[in-house]
Amino acid sequence: MEEEKPASGEEQIVHSFDKSANPLITSRLLIILGIVLLVGIGSGYLLSRQKVGLGGITGRSSSSSAPKGTVAGSNDTTTFKDITEGVLKTGGTDGEGAYHLVRPGGDSQNVYLTSSIVDLSKFIDKKIKVWGQTQKAQHAGWLMDVGKIEVLE
Q1: How many domains does the chain divide into?
Q2: What range defines the domain where residue 26 resides?
Q3: Helix (H, G, I), strand (E, B) or coil at 102
Q4: Residues 42 and 89 placed together within one structural domain of the fold
Q5: Residue 82 CA to chain centroid, in angstroms?
Q6: Cα dihedral angle (124, 125, 131, 132), rounded to 10 degrees?
Q7: pTM of the entire structure?
Q8: Other C-beta atoms within 10 Å of 137: how many?
């Protein structure tokens, strides 16, 4: 099949590919792409294996057993101005809160907690002090979004 030559003065719209492309360039490109892929996978793996702190701006420990004095979370006392303390337990009430603080005075004194900043699961069964923001609740007597936490015992 022969290509049609354009009439003089006309530009050819359809061009044929150069079949003599340098295979050395193609193999170099494949090697470079392979190296980039291996470096990306390797660095992603290494980053995923790094230990992360307790979550929060001032976290000082990455241990799941947080020692006394550990502080985690935000220092924003204007947003997180409500303060309370007690022993942290798992479970909310009627879908409100994932954790609760047990305080003296019985179940009516429990504070139900969520947190957008601190990983509260690191502090279960610890006596803690929390700074947070009170939220509207349907069933919980007191529902709080925790912004900062300190381990007391």
Answers
A1: 2
A2: 20-50
A3: strand
A4: no
A5: 25
A6: 50
A7: 0.56
A8: 16
C-beta of residue 146 within 8 angstroms of C-beta of residue 84: no
* Closest of 136, 131, 142, 147 to residue 82, by C-alpha: 131
40 in the same domain as 99: no
| Amino acid sitting at position 96 | E
Sequence length of the chain is 153
Q: What are the residues whose beta carbons fall under 8 Å from the beta carbon of 112, sequence distance 6 or more?
A: 92, 93, 96, 97, 99, 100, 137, 140, 141, 142, 143, 144
What does the alpha-carbon distance between residue 106 and residue 128 come to, in Å, rounded to a whole number?
17
What does the DSSP 8-state code read for residue 92? Answer: -
Calpha distance 66→128 (Å, rounded): 10
Token pair of 134, please? 């009170």
- pLDDT recorded at residue 56: 43
Q: By CB neighbour count within 10 A (0-12 exposed, 13-18 middle, 19+ buried), where does 119 fall?
A: middle
Only one residue has tokens 């790094």, namely: 50
pLDDT in tens, 4-15: 565 566 777 887
Query: pLDDT digit string (tens) for 12-39?
Result: 788 776 666 666 667 888 899 999 999 9
